[in-house]
Specification:
The protein is of the alpha/beta class. The chain folds into 2 domains: 151 residues, 3-Layer(aba) Sandwich (Rossmann fold), CATH 3.40.50; 58 residues. Helices cover 35% and strands 19% of the residues. The chain contains 8 helices and 12 strands. The protein has a 7-stranded mixed sheet with strand order 6-5-2-7-8-9-12, with helices on one face. The chain has a 3-stranded antiparallel sheet with strand order 1-11-10. A two-stranded antiparallel ribbon has the order 3-4. A hairpin with a 2-residue loop joins β10 and β11. The protein is globular and about 55 Å long. The C terminus is likely disordered.
C-alpha cells in the first residue's frame, strides 16, 4: 500500500536529496585540503551537511579563513559541472511549483551551479548558507523557508538525507521529516524512502509508492488541516 502524507508545502535539502554531489564535493575538498597542507582523510568526514564556513573554521587560523572560504567556493563551483539529479528530483520539484523551497548549507552560487548542471529548476524560495546565523542542525533555515513561502511549518514536509539535516528538520517542528537514501535509516526521520522516484504530489500532499519506502512511518501522517 502507498503511504499518503498531508502537507501544504515541501522543503527540500539539496545535496543527497535532489542531486548527487558526493563525488564532486569530495574532489573539491580534497584539492582544497592539499592546497592548505591538510590531510584530506581528516577534512572529508566533516563536510557533509555543514556550511563551508564552519568547516574552514575548523582547519584554518582566523586570518586565513576568508581566503580559504573563497577558495573552496571557487573549487566547488568548478567541480559542479558533472552534478547529476537523483531519481525523481526533477519531476517532484517541477510538480510542487510554488509550493516548495530548498534549504541548503551551500552558497547561493554553488546551489545554482549544481541545480543547473542537474537540470533542476531553481524554486522561487531558497535559503542558503549566508541567509542564516546558525547552520544545520539548527532549524533556522527551515523556519525561514516556511515563512518566506507563507506557510506554517507544522503543515510542511521536510526532505533530508543526513543526521545533521534530519536533526535540523525535526527541530523545526514540521508535519514530518522524510529521510532520503539508505544512510537516512540511521536517523530518526519519520519515514525513509530510497529516492524521490516513487513520490508524487496529490491534492492533499504527497504519496509515496510502497516500493520506494525503506522504513514506514510509525504514526498516521495523512491528516493536515490545510490542503494544497
Amino acid at each position: 500500500m502507498p503511504t499518503d502524507v498531508a502537507c501544504t508545502a515541501v522543503l527540500f535539502d539539496c545535496d543527497g536529496v535532489l542531486v548527487d554531489s558526493v563525488d564532486s564535493g569530495e574532489r573539491a575538498w580534497t584539492r582544497w585540503a592539499r592546497e592548505y597542507g591538510l590531510d584530506p582523510a581528516v577534512v572529508l568526514p566533516g563536510i557533509h551537511g555543514r556550511r563551508s564556513m564552519e568547516t574552514v573554521r575548523l582547519f584554518l587560523p582566523e586570518d586565513a579563513r576568508a581566503a580559504g572560504l573563497a577558495r573552496i567556493e571557487d573549487i566547488e563551483i568548478s567541480e559542479a559541472t558533472d552534478t547529476e539529479p537523483l531519481p525523481g528530483a526533477r519531476e517532484l520539484v517541477a510538480a510542487m511549483t510554488a509550493d516548495c523551497a530548498i534549504v541548503t548549507s551551500a552558497s547561493a552560487a554553488l546551489l545554482a551551479a549544481r541545480l543547473g548542471a542537474a537540470g533542476i529548476s531553481l524554486p522561487s524560495v531558497t535559503v542558503t548558507a549566508a541567509d542564516v546565523r546558525a547552520g544545520k542542525p539548527a532549524p533556522e533555515g527551515y523556519l525561514l523557508a516556511a515563512r518566506q513561502l507563507g506557510r506554517q511549518i507544522e503543515h510542511c514536509v521536510i526532505f533530508e538525507d543526513s543526521v545533521t539535516g534530519v536533526a535540523a528538520g525535526i527541530a523545526a517542528g514540521p508535519h514530518c521529516v522524510v529521510g532520503v537514501g539508505e544512510r537516512a535509516l540511521d536517523t530518526p526521520a519519520d519515514i525513509v524512502v530510497r529516492d524521490l522516484s516513487g513520490t508524487r504530489r496529490t491534492e492533499h500532499g504527497l504519496r509515496f509508492a510502497e516500493a520506494s519506502i525503506l522504513r514506514s512511518p510509525g504514526r498516521d501522517l495523512g491528516q493536515c488541516t490545510v490542503v494544497l
